[in-house]
Amino acid sequence: MSTASAAGTDGNQRKVFIKTYGCQMNVYDSQRMGEVLGGRGYAVTDTAYGADLVILNTCHIREKAAEKVYSELGRLRLMKDQAGGAMKIAVAGCVAQAEGEEIVRRAPVVDLVFGPQTYHRLPELLDEQAETGSAVVETEFPADEKFDALDAPAGAKMLKRGVAAFLTVQEGCDKFCTFCVVPYTRGAEFSRPAQRIVAEARQLVDAGVREITLLGQNVNGWHGEGLDGGSWTLGHLLDELSAIDGLERLRYTTSHPRDMDDALIAAHGSNPKVMPYLHLPVQSGSDRILKAMNRKHTARSYNDLVARIRAARPDIAMSSDFIVGFPGETDDDFEATMQLVRGVTYAQAFSFKYSPRPGTPAAGHYGQVPEDVKSDRLARLQALLGAQQADFNNACVGRTLDVLLEKPGRKAGQLVGRSPYLQSVFLEAGHRSIGETVRVEITGTGPNSLTGHMVDA
Ligand code: 5AD
Ligand code: SF4
After folding, report:
1. Which listed ligand is nearest to 349 at the C-alpha?
2. All residues at 6 or more sequence positions from 67 whose CB lies less than 8 Å from its CB, including other chains
3. Dist. CA 161 → ligand 1 center (Å)
4. How many angstroms is it from 61 CA to the middle of ligand 2?
5. Do 267 and 194 share a structural domain?
6. For residue 369, pLDDT beyond 70
7. What is the pTM of this model?
8. Does ligand 2 come within 6 angstroms of the Cβ of 87?
9. Could you read off the pLDDT of 324-346 as tens digits, one per residue?
């Protein structure tokens, strides 16, 4: 097989621009794609101009997210024309998985379409495209094969991750919420072996990473053979990872309420490296709607769960996803969601208008909610969630928090880091540098951040 794609004809290194849409898992996948291509002589660049290859790593979760891809392809078509056709264009991720051939029909400018399970084969697919000169579409589903084929990148081969990095430990979903495309685009639940995860985490820490966020569509459904041969769930894995010297913080996202087991809840109380922040989507506060969504929990079981988590870690900051305007949602159902939010109190949240997704059961349900009703409910929910977030941030003023310094701030001499509760904190860092954790007294709040000054500097 030809390796012509390894280097440009003029001897210069080829450039790849990867544009990422959607969730953190796509961010992780884009980094891994960059590393796979790095092994074939491509350097990652931060603009499509002058790139030999542009990859759109796409999201299919809501209609708007999917449509963005086609408008971006329109812009890229002009750029490709200007480059005399030399630029290759690839569509990856969940839109690629869901729409496959349809993408090439709708946007013939596309040279390559590949799903989230096949990016380890990227070099071969590019070669195949170069040899045949026609578009290649690859949407097979061998989840285990992908992770087997991807070595944990080490040393120079690893793309720069910064201080806080993502690490995918679980992929796919068997829950089949009736609104969601994920079970179709990402496939069945699959957990990576503990040994591979620990090896990758060590390599990240060796490269300067201090905080790791474990990723999965149902990350708390992670399970597998542990290093001791026993059967582990996520709580065990967190405990094993926390033994890595130099790793200071662990987070995980996204969790399903059904998979929060006792060991994981206990880890929040007993493992100081597990940060006091939990994204635990509830979607709705109405049992009728939760049932229609096939969520497999009720408002009450969710509230009880939050109470157990708070008993283990009283200061935990809760976060969630919400959908308003699911088919059949009445004013009373929506009121139940508002009631749940008032009861739980969230430090942070994401909320969306229901978007019917082709192929999902709810898209065909009776009682689709009119757009203006959805907009009105979303505005009311977001006002409540925004007020709770502001209250949470204001309550931090006067407290002293550990802040992991991540990057330069807006002003000279300023750095920005993260609190344990995932808030951005701006401060004058003096001689302290990125990667260090400092004690910061919080003195003020901005719309999405905190400000403070170091104590014991
Ligand atoms: N419409 C609106 N929001 C959705 N989500 C998933 N599918 C849809 C949809 N069809 C939201 C859920 C999920 C988050 C990632 O996106 O809240 O938790
Ligand atoms: Fe989608 Fe539900 Fe699976 Fe989450 S749990 S990925 S919302 S189907």
Report:
1. 1
2. none
3. 28
4. 10
5. yes
6. yes
7. 0.93
8. no
9. 999 999 999 999 999 999 999 99
